[in-house]
Amino acid sequence: MIGKYLMASLPTLQMDKLLAALNAAEIGQHPVEVHGALVGLICGGVEQKPSGWTQPLLELMNDGQALPKELQTLIDDLYQDAVTRLSDTDFGFSPMLPQEEESLSKRVEALSLWVQSFLTGIAIIQPKLNQAPLDVREVIQDLSEIAQVEFDVAEDEESEAALIELMEFTRMAALMCYAEFGPAIDDDEPIDVGVMH
């Protein structure tokens, strides 16, 4: 199932390649936005074949227009990688975000962009999110608060710890949405992300 599609590296390490391809195609989106929207579509339960997920993503990132071949190939790989990581916990899903060498404010901004794009992606596929189970609605509400987070943060250990906590919450929230809306999974264990109130 995974075969040649599984990337040897985490999606974060593909960011430079994706950024270069987006710039070459003159698409003014950051790689984290593309990954967030893609994961949002998947976690919303988009049909998992190219005809199901490609068009909604193109609507979000390029006004419905086709992408250059190189960029489309990168996004196909990213899609396959995200599905693999979301559906099999052994592969460890995480949002695509800049590495720790980047400034804290840049990483906070990237998380906010990722979450905004994730919420947009999931809302397109699940327009009746307000009818989802209560725990899912609470998690979506918490994510919408993360999307509004302030970028101007102090470069200190406390802020770093808070960012790590938000990243972990976001990761678990995505897995929870995938478990709720994605294809049926054999494992019946509920995912508890804890609510941030």
TrEMBL record:
SUPFAM superfamilies: YgfB-like. Pfam families: UPF0149. Belongs to the UPF0149 family. This is Uncharacterized protein. It comes from Shewanella sairae. The lineage of its organism: Bacteria, Pseudomonadati, Pseudomonadota, Gammaproteobacteria, Alteromonadales.
